TrEMBL record:
Name used for this protein in its record: NAD(P)-binding protein
Gene3D superfamilies (UniProt xref): NAD(P)-binding Rossmann-like Domain (3.40.50.720)
PANTHER family: RETINOL DEHYDROGENASE, WW DOMAIN-CONTAINING OXIDOREDUCTASE
Domain of life: Eukaryota
Entry similarity comment: Belongs to the short-chain dehydrogenases/reductases (SDR) family.
Keyword Membrane: yes
Keywords for this protein: Membrane, NADP, Oxidoreductase, Transmembrane, Transmembrane helix
Transmembrane segments: 34-53, 239-261
Amino acid sequence: MFSSNLDFNPDELPYYNPIKDRKVALITGGNSGIGFYTVLHLYLHGFIVYIAGRNFNKVSQAIKKLKIEANRRRSLIVENDLNSRFLGELKFIEIDLLNLLNVEKSTKIFKQLESNLNLLILNAGVGALPFGITSDGFEIQFQTNFISNFLLTQRLLPIINNGGRIIYISSIAHRLEFFQFDRNWNFNLKPNIIFTWFRYAMAKSSGIQYMKLLSIKYPNILCYSLHPGFIMNTNFFAYWTRIPFFGIFFWFFFQIFGWFFGCSNEEGSFVTLNCSLNKKIYKNGSYFTTGGKLINSSRISNDLNYATDTWIWTIKELEKRGFKNLD
Ligand SMILES: NC(=O)c1ccc[n+]([C@@H]2O[C@H](COP(=O)([O-])OP(=O)(O)OC[C@H]3O[C@@H](n4cnc5c(N)ncnc54)[C@H](OP(=O)(O)O)[C@@H]3O)[C@@H](O)[C@H]2O)c1
């Protein structure tokens, strides 16, 4: 149904019946980029998908497009296959990762709606932004890519049962944390074009550490992290491409880079889909790269002592802000 340069076919992943099996997924940032295609395939595979986003209109637009695209693809399938493939459901839930109280409130709402969560995909993220501090007092990238994911996950863990999965979208850039960064550092240094990547790396490396520790603490829940690939046509690079005048040069650079090293938005979703749906079980806490290939993440992100320090630091910082009972 979908032709790709990668050795991966989403049609080979299991299909579920939304009524009999009722597989529930929550994905952050499912309205654009890689997340959009992750949602599309989960929907085609029969999942009840909650798209967690900060903007109702954007998510509603995405849901409309997802339904049209899903029906178009189903119209190309032979009738025999359609009998065993059911469309799931698409729902909106408000979560703004830049607001911890909102994250907490959303988890309460979600737990009133659903008593079981099969799949949590921590996909939303920002990168390469100028330095900024959120109203919660964290650096913007660190909060969006890590702190809020931590809070969201800790609050949803009680409804993720045995066999559930938590997938964290990290980045190859986590390797830029090449020695132990103090979690109190916010790298408010110039030039931004360099230090923004250290801020991003610290967040994405912390996320991998978090998945590794979760996999030890909750061995019956599969916790994976991954690098999706270089996908240059998502909104991820919008800050740079929208800079007046110079933006066009960045856009050209990203296109050329993408042409040589990148993959499409849909191919970028494959590793997430593989981690989310593949019946083949890999070692819990593993890290994957483009197309679903198992590889090692950085030495720093694999250091369990350091990961424990990050965990304790995060709990303390959240407690200072009034978020209790997290461990
Ligand atoms: N593109 C790449 O080459 C690449 C490479 C490595 C890793 N990644 C990672 O892949 C993930 C997806 O990125 P993408 O490339 O698909 O970029 P994208 O198109 O910009 O998608 C990011 C998603 O995150 C959401 N988001 C951002 N801030 C949020 C917030 N405060 N609260 C709630 N949602 C928020 C965005 O929602 P809005 O639409 O409301 O902004 C959007 O849906 C990110 O974690 C990124 O770090 C991407």
